[in-house]
Amino acid sequence: MHGFREEGTEKEHVALTFGDVSDGAPVLGRLHSECLTGDALFSLRCDCGFQLEGALQAIANEGRGVLLYLRQEGRGIGLLNKIRAYELQDAGADTVEANLRLGFAEDQRDYRLCLPMLQHLGISSLKLMTNNPRKVNALTELGIQVAERVPLQTGLNPHNHRYLLTKAGKLGHMLGNLHQGEVAED
Ligand SMILES: Nc1nc2c(ncn2[C@@H]2O[C@H](COP(=O)(O)OP(=O)(O)OP(=O)(O)O)[C@@H](O)[C@H]2O)c(=O)[nH]1
C-alpha cells in the first residue's frame, strides 16, 4: 500500500499493489475514480463498486497487479455536487446534462497525477482494466504504455441501465453489453 499527496493540493491518493509489479512486463491495472456511494455504500445507481470488486478479483486471479485509487469523486466535481447531480437526474437530466447544469464539464478528471505514482512503483506499461477510452489516451499521452485495454463490464442492473447508456452514448465508454449510442428511458 502506498499513499501519494497530489502536488499543489490536499488530495491524497492510494496505490495498492500485488506481486512484483516493477519487473518491466505489462501490469494488470485499474485507475479507479473514487465513488463513495458505489464503492463503500453499495449504491446501485452506478457500476463503480462492482468494477472495483471485479478489478481486485482479476488482480488476485492474475497474481500480480496494481490499483490506483484516485480521489476524483463524482468525476472530479466532489461528493456534494455529485449528490446535487443525482437530484437533477431524478428530475430527468442524464449524468452529462446534470454536470453541465451545475456549471461543470462533463468530466473534470485529470490523470496527470498517475505518472508520479506509476513511476514510484516502477511501472511503465499497463494492461488497463477500463471501458473508458479517455483513460487510455491520457496514460498514453503521459508516456505510460497501455499494452492492452481489458474491458470491465459488470454490475449492470435496472437502476444503472440509463446511466450506463448515457456513458456509452455521450462519453464514449465501450460498453458492448449495452445498445451503444442509444439513450434510453428508465
Ligand atoms: N458527476 C457524476 N459522477 C458520477 C456519477 N455516477 C458516478 N460518478 C462518478 O464517476 C466516476 C467513475 O467514472 P465513470 O465515468 O463511471 O467510469 P470511468 O472510471 O471513467 O470508466 P471505467 O474505467 O470504465 O470505469 C466516479 O468518480 C464516480 O463517483 C454521476 O451521476 N455524476
UniProtKB/TrEMBL annotation:
Q: Name one GO biological process term.
A: riboflavin biosynthetic process
Q: Where is the GTP cyclohydrolase II domain?
A: 1-151
Q: In which pathway does it act?
A: Cofactor biosynthesis; riboflavin biosynthesis; 5-amino-6-(D-ribitylamino)uracil from GTP: step 1/4
Q: Which InterPro entries match?
A: GTP_cyclohydro_II, RibA, RibA-like_sf
GO molecular-function terms, A-Z: GTP binding; GTP cyclohydrolase II activity; zinc ion binding
Q: Any keyword Methyltransferase?
A: no
Family indicated by similarity: Belongs to the GTP cyclohydrolase II family.
PANTHER family attached to this UniProt entry: 3,4-DIHYDROXY-2-BUTANONE 4-PHOSPHATE SYNTHASE, GTP CYCLOHYDROLASE II-RELATED
Q: Any idea what this protein is called?
A: GTP cyclohydrolase-2
Originating species: Atopomonas hussainii
